[in-house]
Amino acid sequence: MAQNARSHKASKVVERMGKKLNRQMVGSLVGCVHCGMCAESCHYVLANPDDPTYAPAYKADQIRKIFKRNFDWTGKIFPWWVHAQDVRTDEDLEKLKDIVFGKCTNCRRCSLNCPMGVDFATLNRMARGLLVSVGVMPEGVAVVSKDQWEVGNQMGVLPQDYLETLEWLSDELENEFKDTAARIPIDKMDADVVYAINPREVKYDPRTISDAARIFYIAGENWTMPSEGWDMTNFGLFSGDDELGGVVAQRVYEKVIELRGKRLVLSECGHGYRSTRCEGPNWSGNGVPPFVIESSVLTMLRYIKEGRIRVDKEKNKAAVTFHDSCNNARSCGFYEEPRELLNLLVTDFREMYPNRAENFCCTGGGGAMSMSEYTPQRLKSAIIKADQLKATGVKVVVTSCHNCVDGLTDVIRHYKLGMKVTQLVNLTANALVIPERVVVPVEVQIPFVTLPLQGFKILVVDDEPDILTFLAAVLEDQGATVIQAADGEQALALTIQEKPDLMTLDLSMPGKNGGYVFEEIRNNPEIASTKVCIITGKPELRRLIYERPVAPPEGYLDKPVNEDTLLTSIRMILELKHPHGHA
Amino acid sequence: MSESLRFVSDDLQLMALSFMAIVYIFRIRWLLKFKASRERQAPSGGTGTSSFKGIVYSWANIAMPWSMESTRRMSFFYLQFVVFHLAVAANIGMSFVIPYAPGLMKPMIIVRLLQILFAAACAIGCYRMYRRLSNPAIRLISTPDDFFSLALLTGWSFASIFAAMNRPDLGEGPLMVYFIMTAFFLVYVPFSKISHYLYYPFTRFYFGRTMGHRGVYPVKRVTQPKPTHI
Asked: What are the angstrom distances between the C-alpha of A112 and each of A274, A326, A461, B226?
């Protein structure tokens, strides 16, 4: 009877729950005594003291009640006595979706604080996986999962774009060191190090790749980057889809095996490290891969200890604090090595409290950054993180996770903390002592004959005069001819009239907003090929751009944007291989 | 001692205990039917960690209030937990001592200490009931079973205060009530949240094994000032 009353999706969820349950999960489902000790370990609860539905025990009960009604004897016989309840309709599933995706970042802090050892994060992930299996998930999760299934990486970076970026970065490196060997080797066989990265680095932060390349080069490492299987991130961790998790991890492992690599080094990404280093062998079911897997933090630390690179901490004089990624610290015990490295790189390191396995989530974990519908509640709960950051009294936060970089940047911007987020690879590269055999950097050796952006016409569009002035000044300093527009109408008119090589486009503007302008440009054959770099302070609008039925923008930057990031991005879009001319 | 009191303090208890044991056997068999997941990856974390250490740390966790932020911060709540559970353990012990080794409870000091413990447990039970009703977050997650289990243990502790005297010559009422409640308790427990102690070794074992293998357990802490934001 009960089964017949369920919707098709609800039936599938219950059926699959039965298959997915393991002893640990069942222990966590039956072991909760509703003592409430978990509540104050959750940043959502602390930031929303008047809303009891954020309590981890309550959230777990939404999964537990389905389990009890269908798999546990007391719940089957006396459902009302233990609050057992079946899931019946698609609306029930939607409500569950809003809880497991929107009210928890799977940070595992409550699990660590439960006297009974109830691992709510594992239950939550299981529930996510069940919902994903019937297509009930936030749109962002669907988009990212699709990209990772179909394109091979979670940001949909095409092979050509990936390889061109590495090529471009190699040119820069070669130019910097005046050494033809100073390049990023692709698919080199028998390398000692195979370096896998987060696609975010290709798309938004190529500087971290070039910093890592610089370190490998100076260390004299026999290294390579794979042409495929290079994405060490894994959305299966966030979506709860073990199948996706296994396939993605296996893709990376197989490429390393194919290249006969000895060591897989993972760039700084918390969930990537956890997925590839810790969970991948569990999901793929193939056991420990036949090579060492380590974080690049460990690699850099080893280089310093072995004297393969030398660093000068005086180059990083700003006071810094360190944010432990939940996945690194709370799920992989990776928290001392980053500190050891950090102490070699900076002169003033100040701990954040609480820290290590007890640190608070950046609030962007568990895939939260891709679920724009939950952004307001995420940012509200981020007050806990903001206070924690503020209490350190520093202006630079170091983290070893790309997701945390985005999450913390959002927190810092929202709460106007005026802080900067950076990673250990950036600090290491900055502190590098360049050995004499390496030619000094190009900016000292080779004077610019022409300015890098000379000959390019760039339209900057933003309704905020300060930003408009900043963008124009930076681009003009590099030789570009800059045209300015303060709203959508003006932007469209100037694009048609001036035919710029590139436009930077703000999204949130009065009148015709950036999304509308972007689509108009793409739909007008006369100007459709205009290169567009979105610059927005509202990352939640990202999907509105990428989901439009037109070609995507060539670049995307989050505000606040600094000079380096802006120029790197602009040069990438304009395909400038060298800083002093056209490609 | 009347035949009725002898029956409720002996035969009835044995029947209730047997019932509880049978149900627990089924319960553990049911739990073990679910496959245990494995940690296939190479161990991670520091050199001072391992699966074994993680399991031991996890099991001992409850006796180390400093090991979790929740118990560090809610020290009064933790103290209540200790007293309440000690009282329950003493109460279970007393249900065996009275019929089978009454001599152990002859010294008045033991009786008084037990009575103080049971009275404290009773007071804690009342406070916990108040907390469960007054705290919106706790009320929201509380099931009828949670309320009934707490009421049952509180009432049982209250009955124990009088039963601890073990003076049937002054009237068998307190002992009758105590043993009937004990028998009911034994029969009800396997179906209630009170049987969390049955699951504790399992949940803590697996969580400890995972966290130990990954180098999270034992948790490393550095001395830190009290967070101002909480």
From this structure: 17, 11, 48, 18
